[in-house]
Amino acid sequence: MSRYPAGLPALFLVEMWERFSYYGMRAILVLYLVDAVETGGMGLETSEAVAIYGIYTAAVYILALPGGWVADRFWGARKAVAVGGAVIILGHILLAISGSMAAIFLAGLCCIAVGTGLLKPNISTMVGELYPKEDVGGRDAGFSFFYMGINLGAILGGFVAGYLGEVWGWHWGFGAAAVAMAVGLLNFFYAGQRSLRGKGERPPPKVVDAATHRRDRRVSLGITGAVVVILALLIGTGVIEVTSAAGVAQATGVLIVTVAVGFFLNIYIAGDLSKDEKKRMIVLAVLFVAAAVFWSRFEQAGSSLSIFAAELTSRDLMGFQVPASWFQNLNPAFIILLTPLFAWFWTRAQDRGWEISVFVKFGLALVLVGLGFWILVPAAQIAMTGAKVSALFLICTFFIHTCAELLLSPVGLSTFSRLAPERFVSQMMGFWFLAASLGNLLAGLLAAGMDTETPSALPGLFNQLFFGSAIAGLVLIALSWPLSRWALSGKPPVEEEQRPVQ
C-alpha cells in the first residue's frame, strides 16, 4: 500500500484552502474585536473579546459532532464536505460586508462554524478511507502529510489575511478568506470526479432485530432527554448564567462536556458494539480527555499569546514593525519544516517493528506543551519590569508547541479513524474535534483572566499551564502499558470484523 495514495494530495489541497480561510480569519478576530470603533474595530474589552473568541472556536469544533452524524446517517462524507465549504464561503462574505452591523458579523461567524462542522470531520474520514486498517505507520504518515496541508493553509492565511486585516482594513482580511475557501471547494469538485471517485459514500447500516432496535432507540432518547434536563436545570437554577460573553463561554463548556458524555454513552450502550469495539471506545475516551487538556494549552496561541505578542513583545525588525498576528505563523511554518521528519519516523518505526503506544505519544505531547509555557515564565518576569521582551521567547515556545502538536494531532486523527466502529467513523471524528472544541473554550476562559496592563499575574498563569499539562502527560505515559494491554489484549491494533449489511 502506498504511503501517499492518489486521493491524498487532492484532500490535502481542499483542507489547505479551508484552513487558509479559518486561520486567516482567526489571526485577526481578537485584534478586530478589541480595536477601537473609530479605527474599524468593535471596541470590546479584552475579557469580552477572548470570551467571544473561545465561544466561536469552540462552536467550530462542537458542530463537527452533528456534522459527522449527518454524514453517517444521510449524506455521506463527500456531500457533507461540499455543503460545508459553500456555507463557509457565505460566512466569510457576511464578515466582509458587515461593516459596523454586529448582527451580520455574528451571522457570518455562525455560518463559518456550521460549515466547518460539516467539512472538518468528514474530510478527515475520507483520508482514513484511503488506507487499510492494518497500515498503522502508513496511516500516521498520511495524516501527517495531510496535516501539513492544514498548516500550509494556516501560514498563508495568517500572512495574507493578517496583513490585509491589520494594514488595509479588517474586512479585507475576512474577504480574502472567502476567496481561499472558494478555490478549495472548486478543487474538491474536480477531484471528486477523479482520484476520489467512490470515496465518502454513506456507510451501510448494521442490521439488528426489531427488539434490539426498540431498546437502542429508548436508550438514545433517554440519554438525549437527560442531557436536555441537566442543561435546563443548570440554567434555571442560575448555576449557568448567559448574560455576558464570559457567562456564555462557561455555559458552552458545560454544554460540550454534557454532550460529549451523552454522545459517548449513546454509542457505547446503544450502538450494538462488539466487546473489542467497546474496549477501543474506552481508549478513544481517554484520548479525548488528554486532547482537551492539550488544546486548552495549545490554543492560547490565539488568545493570551496573541495579546502577549501585541502588547509585551518587542516586534521591531530592522525598522519594520512585525504585525502581532504574524507570530501565529510560526506554528504552521514549523509544522511544514518538521512534518517530513515526523512522517519518516512513523513509517521507519513500523518497518523496524518499534511499538510506540498512542498513549506515550499523547503523554509526551502534554509534557512538551507545558514546557513551552514554562519557558515564558522568565519572559513574564521581564515584562513585570515594564520592558518589552525578546521575540525569541515566543519563537521557542511555538517551536516546542509544534513538536507537541505533531505528536498528538495527526496521530489522533489517524487513531480515531482506525479504531472507531465502522458505522460511526464520521461521528467519532466529530467526537475527536469535540475535544478541540472543549480545549479551545477552556483556552479562552483561561486567557480571560489575563491582565496585560499589570502583567504580574503572568508568571503564575504560565506556571499553572505548565504543571497542569506536564502532570497529566506523565500520568498518561505511566498508564500506557496497562491501557494498551487491556484494550488490545495482545492482538493487532485493529482486527477487521465481519458485520451483516443491507
Automatic annotation (TrEMBL):
Keyword set, alphabetical order: Cell membrane, Membrane, Peptide transport, Protein transport, Transmembrane, Transmembrane helix, Transport
Location of the protein in the cell: Cell membrane; Membrane
Presence of keyword Metal-binding: no
Membrane-traversing stretches: 49-69, 89-119, 140-164, 170-190, 219-240, 246-269, 281-298, 326-346, 358-377, 389-408, 429-449, 461-481
InterPro entries, per database record: Dipep/tripep_permease, MFS_dom, MFS_Transporters, POT_fam, PTR2_symporter_CS
Domain Major facilitator superfamily (MFS) profile: 1-485
Highest taxon of source: Bacteria
Principal location class: membrane
Keyword Transmembrane annotated: yes
Membrane topology listed for this record: Multi-pass membrane protein
PANTHER family given in the database record: PROTON-DEPENDENT OLIGOPEPTIDE FAMILY TRANSPORT PROTEIN, RESISTANCE PROTEIN MDTM, PUTATIVE-RELATED-RELATED
Membership in a protein family: Belongs to the major facilitator superfamily. Proton-dependent oligopeptide transporter (POT/PTR) (TC 2.A.17) family.
The protein, known as: Peptide MFS transporter
Organism: Alloyangia mangrovi
